[in-house]
Amino acid sequence: MKAFSIWNKMKISFYPTFIESPLPQECNYSRIEFDSISKCWNVLEDPQFVVFAAALKHRIPSFGFIIEEKSSPGKLDSKKLLDIGITPGPIFGKLKNGVKVKLDSGEELDPADFVGPDVPGRKVAVMGDTCDSSEILPIAQDVDVLVHEATMENNLLEKCVEFGHSTPNMAVDVAVGCKAKSLVLFHLSPRYKPLSLSNGDEDKDTAQIIINQATNHLKEVGRADMDLLVAEDFSEYQILKKK
Length: 243
What we know:
The chain is α/β, with parallel strands linked by helices and 243 residues long.
């Protein structure tokens, strides 16, 4: 059964008889309609970004989010403008922003003649708890970074899925399915000591187990080129702007 079907059958309510009052941010909300064609929710859109969400399969409602940066204008051909006598100033800015400019001579300058192709925005997918992320794959194609859980090692697959979680191989398969450039694994079981706290060979159960299994599977599926890391608290990962 698909993740959305499971989620849609669950009824979530708030009863005033609860001992604890709802948090301030839980008192007001905006309803977001589900798009049955793309099988996702359009959560947010502003001039710079658009955010989509899709249902994941877990024991309780869980979601994956796609954060996509909108394309930005291409490079302005300053030399071409200088060659026709246009000096840097407001005209440069208008053309760069896609606005046609009419000169005093009556000549009209079209941005398409002076600005290069749009620069694609960056795209990130962040998954919540999941043992099946297949429903989000159609909107997660060509992500720069996939952030996906890898709770337990591969030989604990049955137990992992029973509790609604994923193994390193499962996370890699999702990354390959959405053609991700980088894979960041997180939500590891506490049994795996973070590498920053590891004493090397003295510690058997560390995050290195998860890294090794994911690395091996990437080689098996022909994606050894994919960047891979296991996140820790306060980890940072930089996604460079495309050119």
